[in-house]
Design a protein that fits this description.
It is a single chain. The protein is an alpha/beta fold and 208 residues long. The strands form two sheets. The protein has a seven-stranded mixed β-sheet, sandwiched between helices. It has a four-stranded mixed β-sheet with strand order 8-5-6-9, with helices on one face. β10 and β11 form a beta hairpin. α1 crosses α3. The radius of gyration is 16 Å and the shape is globular.
Length: 208
């Protein structure tokens, strides 16, 4: 088995113990096999808990503007047999208020030494909403994602992508021609908003 596969299995196994039975979960972007290989990271935690026999219900954010949640996460979870419902990114707070959400779990592109985490844009607002509603917020990522040379998330560079991904997404114009667009691909979630970081080695509690 490839190292990435073993790592993903370990992340899923470590994280599954944090998932109650039954559980309602919100996730953001794609963290399954299509994105990371193996069982995935955050999605691997979900499917491991599901395979353990836990009753799992997932709300998957669409993940604007490239819709990785809609195109990939929803498809992978549905194919695995998980009860998954697609929502727009802006619906998460309402779901937390109207229904019992047991946890939010996301992946990470980079983690600073203090636990600040860069992930797909929209993750930070999801963490703020989770804090407001008393919902645990978990990050699942391999230890290779942790960059101990960065003291905090302030040092993580954020890619800004082309505006047409928003204004002319998937070839359909949805905004006035010539409109200015701000399109950062990632945001940084402060460590104080993160309940724990699940790695292949252990569950870590910020600061790291």
């Amino acid at each position: 088995m490839r190292k990435t596969g073993r790592c993903a299995i370990a992340i899923g196994r470590n994280g599954a113990v944090l998932v109650p039975d039954p559980a309602t979960i919100i996730t953001h972007c794609n963290t399954g096999a299509l994105a990371t290989g193996g069982k995935g990271t955050a999605q691997g935690v979900i499917t491991t808990a599901f395979d353990d026999g836990k009753k799992i219900r997932v709300f998957a954010d669409e993940t604007r503007p490239l819709l990785q949640g809609a195109r990939l996460t929803a498809w992978e979870l549905q194919r695995h047999g998980v009860d998954v419902t697609l929502i727009t990114d802006s619906m998460a707070a309402m779901i937390m208020r109207w229904q019992k959400v047991d946890l939010v779990i996301v992946g990470a592109d980079r983690i600073a030494a203090n636990g600040d985490t860069a992930n797909k844009i929209g993750t930070y607002s999801l963490a703020v909403n989770a804090k407001m509603h008393g919902v645990p917020f978990y990050v699942a990522a391999p230890t290779s994602t942790i960059d101990s040379s960065l003291a905090s998330g302030d040092a993580i560079p954020i890619e800004e992508r082309e505006g047409n991904e928003i204004a002319n997404g998937f070839g359909k114009r949805t905004a006035p021609a010539g409109i200015k667009v701000f399109n950062p691909a990632f945001d940084v979630t402060s460590s104080e908003l993160i309940t724990a970081i699940i790695t292949e080695k252990k569950i870590c509690y910020p600061p790291l």
